[in-house]
Amino acid sequence: MPQLEVQFEGFPNQIFSGEVQRANLVITNKGEKTLSNLKVKLSHPSFFYFGKMEHLNIDVYEETTEGQAPIFTPFDSSNVLKDPSLVDICLINKNEDCLLSGESVTIPVWIRGDRVGIFNFQFLFIYGSDVTFFFFSKLPFSTSLSLSLSLFFFFPCEYIKIKIKIQIKNQSLKILS
After folding, report:
1. Nearest 5 degrees, angle CA 92-CA 123-CA 86?
2. Would 173 be classed as within a structural domain?
3. d(CA 129, CA 40)
4. What is the pLDDT of residue 89?
């Protein structure tokens, strides 16, 4: 049977609200059979976007050129109820959506600071095998992340005292010193 092993590379410990960072998800099949039908159930789906292998060399904020396909696929507005916390993971390997025994694949994952706080993300990886028709197995995984406010003032010298007033009028921000 297939045996799944997952590992995040470059997963941040802290990000700011609204910030986007990329980590890599390394997926390895340690079992003796082919692994297929990989899905992940997320505790916080609004924080994550799972890409494809061809997106590995693309920077987080890289602009797309004319004619280039976007990284993030548009929302499917068909009238179908879908659970946003259940995500299919694309394992395209030699034109097949499977992972052979002993093989490994790296997939980019974009993490977006959705809300401020300390979060413990729970992932439940669900996978099957091409050999046995009704075989499915689960692998739980968790990691933590601290999200901070994005407006932050830092003064490295304690001898400098500066008073700052922030005034908001008609949805415009003015900083008075």
Report:
1. 60
2. no
3. 16
4. 85
